[in-house]
Amino acid sequence: MAAALGTSPDLLLMSPPRRAWFLDWKDTATGILGRLPWPCRVLEVPAMPTSLGGSSNEDRAIYLRVAELPVLIGATTVDVFPQILSGNLVGRVQARCYLATAFMRRPKAIGILSGTGLATPAFA
């Protein structure tokens, strides 16, 4: 991303087991915990797939430059229709919110980390 976009990512998305593995990572030579500082903010995404790859044991991490990926959210409107099903003391509520994105404006602001190095984490 730094070469393609000219700036580094500011958000990293990964599965909770992958983040736990990074936090528990130990140097193989010294056995010292590798509590390295993250270069950007990290969010755990439980919905991140963890059964990818040829052996179905690979997960992915996604890195983003959030400022380059605008998300526009409109005002939320709520309408209440008390007359519908009023014989049963039930009303209907309808909520609307408009959302727009421009992710294709800068596709190089989204990157995916994948490969055999991201096989299922093993905890010692």
Please state the CA-atom Rg, rounded to the nearest Å.
22 Å
Q: What fraction of residues sit in β-strands?
A: 25-35%
Count the strands? Answer: 6
By secondary-structure content and strand pairing, the structural class works out as: mainly beta
Strand count, sense and closure of the main sheet? 4 strands, mixed
CATH class of the largest domain: Alpha Beta
Number of domain modules: 2
Report the uncertain regions. Answer: none
Distance between the termini: 32 Å
**Shape label:** elongated
Following the backbone from N to C, one meets helices and strands in this order, namely HEHEEEEE
Strand line-up across the major sheet: 2-1-3-6
CATH third-level topology of the largest domain: hypothetical protein PF0899 fold
Percent range of helical residues: 10-25%
The whole-number mean of residue pLDDT values reads 81
| Number of H- or I-type helical stretches | 2
CATH architecture of the largest domain: 2-Layer Sandwich
How would the blueprint of this fold be written?
Blueprint: H1 2-5, E1 11-14, H2 16-24, E2 41-44, E3 61-64, E4 71-81, E5 92-101, E6 110-113
Parallel strand pairs: 1-2
Antiparallel strand pairs: 1-3, 3-6, 4-5
Overview of the structural elements:
It is built from 2 helices and 6 strands, in the order αβαβββββ. It has helices at residues 2-5, 16-24; strands spanning 11-14, 41-44, 61-64, 71-81, 92-101, 110-113. α2 links the parallel β1 and β2 (41-44). It has 124 residues and is mainly beta. The model has no long low-confidence stretch (mean pLDDT 81). It folds into 2 domains: 1-69 and 106-124, hypothetical protein PF0899 fold, CATH 3.30.2320; 71-103, no CATH class. Helix content is 10%, strand content 30%. It has a 4-stranded mixed beta sheet with strand order 2-1-3-6. The protein has a two-stranded antiparallel sheet with strand order 4-5.
